[in-house]
Design goal:
The chain contains six helices and twelve strands. The mean pLDDT is 93. It has two domains: 113 residues, no CATH class; 63 residues. The protein has 200 residues and is α+β, with helices and mostly antiparallel strands. Helix 2 packs across helix 3. Strands 3-4-5-6 form a four-stranded antiparallel beta sheet.
């Protein structure tokens, strides 16, 4: 018997009217609307979520926040998900991965396990920003289709977070295609600085 009481599912959510609902366990509803969805915890269930992870009203959206509810209340999340080319995983295992990548501070606090470089997308992105606050990092790019970009080059605008400075450059297209997911760092000795193109 569950330690939590059952509760009715609300008719509306922060994302609009609820179109589909599924009770995963007493006090845990999985809901969807026309445009979004997530997990709704009862007041009792939500009180069990640590304050540093808790969301007001017990609403946890489906992209990343659902993992905060799922790691505290894993019941109902043991369905195996099959993904082509990858090992089968339970919904709870996916929740833990989402938790680690998108909520690293809460993950470390909750689990007591410090995350290493490469283990959390958000933590790695923060470190990239910190390491490059004095460098120009590309904010937007234009290909050869732009009249001011020569063949084999990419035209970019880059910003430096330390002083909000902004400059324009031409960079090698092949090199730019190998950029990391966090951004492309300008090398002032390699990349060509240009004036701001007309009309931009």
């Amino acid at each position: 018997m569950s330690a939590y009481d059952r509760c009715p599912c609300p008719k509306t959510s922060p994302w609009g009217a609820i179109q589909h609902k599924k009770e995963l366990a007493p006090g845990i509803w999985q809901i969807s609307t026309a445009g979004h969805g997530g997990i709704k915890l009862s007041r009792e269930r939500n009180a069990a979520v640590p304050k540093y992870m808790r969301r007001e009203g017990g609403w946890y959206e489906e992209d990343c926040e659902w993992a905060l509810a799922a790691v505290v209340h894993p019941i109902g999340l043991q369905r195996v998900i099959k993904t082509e080319g990858k090992p089968d995983r339970t919904e709870f295992e996916i929740a833990m991965e989402t938790f680690r990548h998108w909520h690293p501070d809460a993950y470390e606090h909750f689990t007591g396990v410090p995350l290493l470089p490469g283990q959390s997308r958000i933590k790695d992105e923060r470190q990239f920003a910190l390491d490059n606050e004095g460098n120009f990092v590309v904010a937007a790019a234009w290909g050869e289709w732009a009249s001011w970009v020569p063949v084999g080059k990419v035209g970019v605008i880059a910003r430096r977070s330390s002083d909000k400075a902004e400059k324009w450059f031409l960079v090698d297209a092949g090199l730019y295609s190998k950029r990391t997911g966090w951004g492309f760092v300008i090398d002032l000795a390699r990349d060509t600085e240009i004036s701001k193109p007309e009309g931009l």
